Amino acid sequence: MSEPAGGKSTADEPWPVRVVTQKIGAWISKLGWVWVDGQVAQISRRPGSSVVFLTLRDPSADLSLTVTAHRDVLDAGAPELAEGARVTLHAKPEFYPARGTLSLRADEIRQVGLGELLARLERLKKLLAAEGLFSRERKRRLPFLPGRVGLITGRASAAERDVLMNTRRRWPAVDIKVLNVPVQGPTAVPQIIEALKVLDNDDTIDVIVIARGGGSVEDLLPFSDEALCRAVFACRTPVVSAIGHETDTPLLDYVADLRASTPTDAAKRIVPDLGEERQLIDVARRRLERAVLTLIDRETHRIESWRSRPSLARPELLVDQRAADVTALRDRATRSLDHRLRRADDELRHTVARLRALSPAATLQRGYAIVQRSDGHVVRAADEVKPDDLLRVRLAEGELRAAVKETE
């Protein structure tokens, strides 16, 4: 069956497999020659064959490609190439229609040396630092006593043993969830990232520890991987990095919320020591007892000083003193009142004397009389009355009624 004239496949005119494979091969060949960086997961040198087969794996993802190269190309660029090594190769993608597989055909292979690896790590370190992944402001404080600890480490490794033994020695009741993953090799980074996601999504986990024992720079490369660093940065749960020895500083140490120099040091950082905490409690209890006793003694002395004061020792003195004050004030008031009464009495007698001296009654006592007409008018002259007028004569004692006979 030939390809349709319009170049489109339909249900009535489908493409045969050979056409599809040809088109796939044509599209893939358009990519051309490219430089590829990866980690060698497998090397296959078949006896009697001039072709070497490599499995090239992405260090940060669960992806791989098959690479074919002439033995001379491999011997010229990387004669001592071993599984796990990092390489950079110049290759062209090819699609094999017979098997329906994709591979890379390499004409140059370069093994990445330690110096170049370190230079790459330094460039990556500067990039992550510029993006703020190492910022101290974003690092979270670890809980004082985590309810549950997540541990990512190699299976049956010394790092796992050190973390478990020391954490349980310091705090026997600690609960640890262990996820065993490869800690080196081509599959390390994807599985560590997957384990990190599992623990970060577990709400019972309060802190995550990534631990590994010592090793060469190449062995610790997975813990400087960019994808792992970004995964740790995105975690909601605090992460502790416990990689290698004290002198080993992979990039994970800079991104993690806390760097432990060794797995044993991580155990000391994530849980408190039960014996030390008991000693601290005993010390705090003794300090509290001393503080309470000191407070009681001080308040007792204060109460004793209050009791020794006259107001409390002899409270009747206050009443007596106030009674004396009241008596003195009452005496002063009595004397002042008597004085005022006597002075007022003297003034009254003087006033009465003056009044009596000026009173008409006093004049009457000396023999004078007051003559009034019947209408009450006081007679002061003789021409004010007429004969036969009735007059009233007021004496010092009594009155007289008189009639006028004549006037002069």
TrEMBL record:
UniProt keyword list: Cytoplasm, Exonuclease, Hydrolase, Nuclease
Catalytic activity reported: Exonucleolytic cleavage in either 5'- to 3'- or 3'- to 5'-direction to yield nucleoside 5'-phosphates
UniProt domain OB-fold nucleic acid binding: residue ranges: 16-110
The keyword Cytoplasm appears for this protein: yes
Exonuclease VII large subunit C-terminal domain ranges (all copies): 133-349
Pfam families the UniProt entry points to: Exonuc_VII_L, tRNA_anti_2
Subcellular location: Cytoplasm
Chief place of localization: cytoplasm
The enzyme's E.C. designation: 3.1.11.6
Quaternary structure (record): Heterooligomer composed of large and small subunits.
Role noted for this protein: Bidirectionally degrades single-stranded DNA into large acid-insoluble oligonucleotides, which are then degraded further into small acid-soluble oligonucleotides.
UniProt family annotation: Belongs to the XseA family.
Protein name, UniProt field: Exodeoxyribonuclease 7 large subunit
